[in-house]
Amino acid sequence: xxxxxxxxxADHLILEALKEDISSEDVSTNAxxxxxxxxxxxxxxxxxxxxxxxxxxxxxxxxxxxxxxAEFFCSDGDEVKAGQLMGxxxxxxxxxxxxxxxxxxxxxxxxxxxxxxHSVAELLKGSRTKLLDTRxxxxxxxIFEKYAVRVGGGYNxxxxxxxxxxxxxxxxxxxxxxxxxVKMARDYAxxxxxxxxEVENLDMVREAVDAGADIIMxxxxxxxxxxEAVRIIxxxxxxxxxxNVTKENIARLTELGVDYISSGxxxxxxxxxxxSMKNLHAVE
Length: 284
Hints:
20% strand, NadC/ModD, 10 helices, 4-stranded antiparallel sheet, 284 residues, elongated, 6-stranded parallel sheet, alpha/beta
């Protein structure tokens, strides 16, 4: 995540997280630290995984005090091992204490998503299929969580509702059918927008193809139905399958030949990666 993205898209979210954790003061820290004392603390990995979010971790402390520095011994996307020293943070001990929880929340969450995404993406190696995330993200965490998916080897689906046309079951119901929904979207959306249609059965697949959909999402269909759907589409649209896809069941989809598999589990079901800040001490 580069500095421009951080400044424009992430800083205000990080500040809100800090305000949530420090509404007026850090009572515990202020009780034991009456004045500024320079200190250093180790960033230690306690679990094997893929790291993501180091610059977000650093930014938490910088927003509290621009003089805080962080030195990392690994980079986003690297495999880390339990017990590994990942970096050191130096600055006013009061800042290190007050920013610790928020900084670790970001780093643990993002690294957990990257780790889980990596494990799922590995199952698609050797196939033509790309692994996508969804909009099933934690409120106000989407920019961080979708970044973590990319670090883990996945790809981003649309970022938000302004990013692309995806006609789901309720859109189709509101429009009066697949053909009507696609026509309305074609008339409304700029020509540069692709139109994706979610379908639930083979009749809807045929309607979406005939309507000229650019991407057809096969939602909660059986492997046999999806195999037949791919045959019906015959390359006339890109294909995506979705619906409760996890690491445990994705193997049944790898031989279908679809262009994309999307999984909300990448962001809504990934466990955190256990990382901690230890050995805080004063320095000269």
